[in-house]
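Support request from a user on the community tier.

User writes: "When I paste my structure tokens into the form, the page sometimes reloads and wipes my input. The last time it worked, I copied everything first. Here is what I submitted, just in case something in the input itself triggers the reload:"
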């Protein structure tokens, strides 16, 4: 980078983790649009509840200058499929050996427990080691209850998780696995 008087300074590499889950989220959003278009399921990304404390007017319109989170978020996605309520979280992980539980907030874990208690379908989709896994909420909670570790070993994810194969339409057919493990293939939908 050139500064005044032709002084050259190298920019230090700043690592940002803010958009780490965006690739997985993009696949899921595309998949959910496909499911909605084909009238297979209605599953949506939940918006984070944000309050506006200050806004300014610009030639392009009103812009939020300061805001705050109104309440802790729950899980990323929810909706309905074959008359069943579904709720799930999507996470990506750079580690090759384990999934850090610090990726979950305590209120999210508590929420997963409540959703399961009420009989809904609840799971986590984790992208790790270039693969995407669906881990049942029951298996996630069981791991938390049985272990004091701060991460889920990759071997546990391989043992208990279901690999989701990326495709064209839908991009990430997670409802195929939902049919298999939760609904036992009952009246499966057909892809065109």
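"...and here is what came back when it finally went through:"
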């Amino acid at each position: 980078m050139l500064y005044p008087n032709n002084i050259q300074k190298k920019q230090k590499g700043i690592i940002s983790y803010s958009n780490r889950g965006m690739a997985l989220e993009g696949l899921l959003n595309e998949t959910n649009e496909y499911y909605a278009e084909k009238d297979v399921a209605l599953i949506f990304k939940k918006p984070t509840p944000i309050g506006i404390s200050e806004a300014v007017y610009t030639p392009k319109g009103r812009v939020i200058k300061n805001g705050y989170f109104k309440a802790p978020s729950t899980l990323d996605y929810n909706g309905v499929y074959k008359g069943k309520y579904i709720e799930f979280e999507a996470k990506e992980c750079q580690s090759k050996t384990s999934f850090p539980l610090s990726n979950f907030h305590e209120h999210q874990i508590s929420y997963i427990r409540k959703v399961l208690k009420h009989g809904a379908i609840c799971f986590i989709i984790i992208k790790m080691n270039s693969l995407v896994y669906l881990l049942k909420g029951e298996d996630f909670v069981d791991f938390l209850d049985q272990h004091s570790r701060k991460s889920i070993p990759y071997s546990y994810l391989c043992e208990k998780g279901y690999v989701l194969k990326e495709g064209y339409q839908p991009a990430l057919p997670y409802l195929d696995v939902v049919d298999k493990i939760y609904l036992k293939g009952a009246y499966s939908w057909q892809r065109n």
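Agent notes: The reload is a front-end session timeout and is unrelated to the input. Residues 22-37 form the longest helix (16 residues). The radius of gyration is 20 Å. Escalated to web team.
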